[in-house]
Amino acid sequence: MHLLLLKLFPSAFGLLLQEATSGRASLAWEKAQHPDLSKFLVIGALLFIIGVAGVLTRRNIIVIFMSIELILNAANLNFIAMSRYLQETGSVNAVAGQIFAVFVIVVAAAEAAIGLGIVIALYRNKETIWVDEIDILKW
Amino acid sequence: MILSGWEAVFFWVFSIAAIFAGLLTVMARNTIHSALFLISSLVSVAALFILLQAEFIAGVQILVYVGGVMVLFLFVIMLVNVGEEERGREEIFNRSRQVTTSVIFCGLLAAGLLYAINVGYEGFLKRDEAKIQAAGSERRAREQHLATSATGSSRITTDAERMGGSLYRYASLPFEIASVLLLVAIIGSVMLARTLKQEAAVDDVAPDVLQKEAAHDPEVVEAHNIL
Q: How confident is the model over A113-136, as pLDDT tens digits?
């Protein structure tokens, strides 16, 4: 039985692969050689998800702050990519995305300053940077 | 916007670098390593900004993030004690159940976002195809006199100039509000990071707290008396 499966599998698999990717593999290669707006959006989405995963899983509050920076940066990448796309379509106010990115950077800088001030004050009072040990508000 | 030739190589190198450096930021055990990986991720994203012809934002990204914010991060990491984490005694992630749930959630988020981007981009292209064609020829005519960039397939743009103009023309009120926000952030972080001694020196401590602290830290009262 196993032998039969083993014999059948490669040919069946090959056939399936051929069916599923007929034309698609070469299209994907073509797309990879000539990346467009959607590739930038995908990179932005991946960076965003890595940042979300960092915020949700890490215990160190400083690394959580760094993950938030990663999220903001992913948003910036999306803004700039969309701004470029609007420039391609000849939109009138195409640099609005870039202006928005400047403000995101400003807010990120302010957030980092305040957040790290809080971390310093917290470390002075509680002697810890692990978020699961900072539970004064827990009843 | 289709990239080709060296621009495509540039794109793949820096996007893969950004993703890997981002992953390592989240995975690294040593917090200093985390910060350094975040710096390389930010620099790679700045390179992608240059590819998207947003040179000014790329410069701001490197100056503000790498030169300002990340240096602040490194100082704070050195101020707090993370030795136990480095030596491997402390678990760096939350409990395994939380981590599993978060990873599943992130996977679903990734699937949803990638699907949405694919579908949305198809729709975008269908809607804007004629506009892109029309604007493309016009742009090529306009860019004829600009110098070629290093990749050879595109021109050095005047977008920084346009962006500065738009920033002051259409966004001058948010610009002013941003400056107030930064001022508030400076004052706020100075207030938050003061020690009790510094607070006592400017008479900013409640009298009963001062009495209580006096028992095991005479310097606090001293600072208060100087005032």
A: 999 999 998 888 888 888 888 888
Q: How many whole angstroms separate alpha carbon A53 and alpha carbon B109?
A: 10
Alpha-carbon span B27 to B37, nearest angstrom: 10
State the best of A24, A55, A60 to mutate against chain B, taking most chain B CBs within 10 Å.
A60
Q: A26 CA to chain B: closest CA distance, Å?
A: 16
Task: Dig out the tokens for B173 from the structure.
Answer: 């009120």
Tell me the mean pLDDT in the region B19-47: 94
Contacts of A124 in chain B (CB under 8 A): 195
Given CB atoms, is A82 within the 8 Å cutoff of chain B? no
Q: What is the pLDDT of residue B18?
A: 95
Say yes or no to pLDDT of B106 above 90: yes
Instruction: Give contacts of B104 with chain A, Cβ < 8 Å.
Output: none
Q: Where are the alpha helices (DSSP H) in A1-139?
A: 2-21, 24-33, 37-57, 61-88, 96-126
Q: What topology is assigned to A39-139 in CATH?
A: Helix Hairpins (1.10.287)
Look up the pTM and report it: 0.84
Mean pLDDT of chain B: 84
Cβ atoms < 10 Å from Cβ of B186: 14
DSSP states of B125-171 as a string?
Answer: HHHHHHHHHHHHHHHHHHGGGSPB-TTSSSB---HHHHHHHHHHHHS
